[in-house]
Design brief:
With about 325 residues, the protein is α/β, with parallel strands linked by helices. It has a single domain, classed as 3-Layer(aba) Sandwich (UDP-N-acetylmuramoyl-L-alanine:D-glutamate ligase). Helices cover about 35% and strands about 25% of the residues. It has a ten-stranded mixed beta sheet with strand order 5-4-1-8-9-10-11-12-13-14, sandwiched between helices. A four-stranded mixed beta sheet has the order 3-2-6-7. Helix 8 runs antiparallel to helix 9. The protein is globular. The two termini are about 30 Å apart. The mean pLDDT is about 95.
Length: about 325
């Protein structure tokens, strides 16, 4: 197997993910739940978990807070993932996923995290830069905590310029800020189809229109590579070489969509960190995302499933 460049994931708004099941979700009566499953969660943590499940290695930079942060640290220690801890304010948040057994529907409740003081936010780029690999990858994934400005990701990209390649998978105002203008040092920007639609302002109803949108962002210098998840259809990738690719998602039974995007990012980053070309890395990301939706609750992709599905993830030029 090819040598792997180092990978650092960054999770500023982590969670303790709690998942359970009830026969039926009803307002009023007490709902007796199945025994809960607890997992360490948050975008970057899930990317690190996916990399580990797929046979790779990474280090996770994580902000911990309060008693829930201690619980999160214990859950992370059990995974064997290397961790760089940062003392965040308040309590680490929790999220709850409940599956209604009679229908298979999943209900997700996400708690807010603590608000960060401006001085603590301002200290983060230097703290992250101090542990970022000089010839590797840095992945900023997940939501930003309260107290962060939409431009934080742009500030971090600038601070890490020249210290490896950076991947950002975010949404909302932070994504909008990155998409407005070029920023030197951003290697990969990923988003889902709803986020792309909001940025484009019109219908991205086909692979071709989505690829055109991604390619336009690349031409404007927003990122060297732009990836857009095209729902259950697959994912589109455009890069600075002029390549425009579509990775077809295989048809699989869907049990839970939690962590599918993070599994994609983990598989994609692991592939490029091992020197694989864009089309193959795209295929691996799509396979891992498909594998993730086959698992229950907050479980991510399984390596055997991802490897088996890879042959069905046909990549074509768009």
């Amino acid at each position: 197997m090819a040598a792997q460049q180092p990978v650092l994931t960054v999770t500023l708004n982590p969670t303790v993910d709690v998942s359970t099941e009830v026969p039926e979700v009803l307002a009023g009566p007490k709902l007796r739940c199945a025994a809960p499953q607890l997992d360490p969660g948050g975008g970057g943590i899930n990317v690190s978990r996916a990399i580990a499940l797929l046979g790779g290695e990474s280090t996770a930079f994580v902000a911990f807070g309060g008693a829930t942060g201690l619980q999160l640290g214990g859950l992370l220690a059990a995974t064997g993932i290397a961790v760089v801890a940062f003392d965040g304010p308040g309590e680490t948040r929790q999220s709850l996923a409940v599956i209604e057994a009679t229908t298979g529907r999943q209900f997700r409740f996400v708690m807010p995290g603590a608000s960060w003081p401006a001085a603590l936010v301002a200290s983060l780029p230097d703290r992250i830069a101090a542990v970022a690999p000089k010839a590797g990858w840095v992945v900023l994934s997940g939501s930003q905590p309260l107290g962060f400005t939409p431009g934080f990701a742009r500030t971090l990209v600038r601070r890490l310029a020249g210290r490896g390649r950076m991947v950002v998978d975010t949404s909302g105002a932070p994504l909008g800020n990155l998409a407005t203008a070029a920023v030197a040092g951003l290697s990969v920007l990923r988003m889902d189809s709803e986020e792309a639609q909001a940025l484009a302002g019109d219908g991205l109803t086909s692979r071709e229109s989505t690829a055109g949108f991604a390619a336009a962002l690349v031409r404007r210098g927003v990122a060297q590579t732009v990836i857009v998840a095209h729902g259950a259809d697959g994912s589109v990738l455009a890069d600075s070489s002029g390549g425009r690719w579509f990775g077809l998602a295989p048809k699989v039974p869907v049990r839970s969509k939690v962590g599918a995007g993070d599994s994609f990012v983990g598989a994609y980053v692991l592939a490029v960190a091992r020197g694989e070309a864009a089309p193959q890395a795209l295929a691996r990301g799509v396979a891992a995302a498909s594998a993730a939706v086959m698992t229950e609750a907050t479980e991510l992709c399984r390596r055997d499933d991802a490897e088996r599905l890879l042959a069905e993830c046909v990549v074509t030029k768009v």
